Amino acid sequence: MESDHPSRVINGSARSFLATIRMTTQLCLTAFSPHRDADALEWSRLARVQRSDLTQRKADLMNSFWDFFWLLVWTFFFVFYLMVLFHIIADLFRDRDLSGWWKAIWIIFLIIFPFLAAFIYLIARGRGMAERQAGEMQKAQAATDQYIQTVAARSNPAEQIASAKSLLDSGAINQEEFEKLKAKALAS
Question: In this structure, are 10 and 63 located in the same domain?
């Protein structure tokens, strides 16, 4: 098969490496050749081909750099759009005032005309979106504070002093540390 031919399998950098080996081999052969002038002209021609190949590879590298740059730019905008889209969908289902039919219409509109629907939603419902987000944040903060208070409930000072006394009796703390814990319990 022609597709399995070794010259088709080798990539560009390997080809340039092989071209360099070929030129070096020809240089060695010209040193021992009786036709040195003709071989020197051939060597000169091969060196020009090698330089133009190097110039082409530099141009390809520059193109690939700009291709990579634009890939990064478009990837950034795509991820940004996905974040906005997920915020819109979360806001749609968070809104208790909007009926189910309107939510379905917005979702269909987001699927059919994604960019246009996102811009219209942000313009038309952006203020309410921010208010609903702030409300959810306040609810989450209140729930966190309540959980922390239940977990870290303070016992009464008598229990704290009794606990410190048992630590003193077991030898885990000394008299000075006991007095500090007792003062702290009485201060709260």
Answer: yes
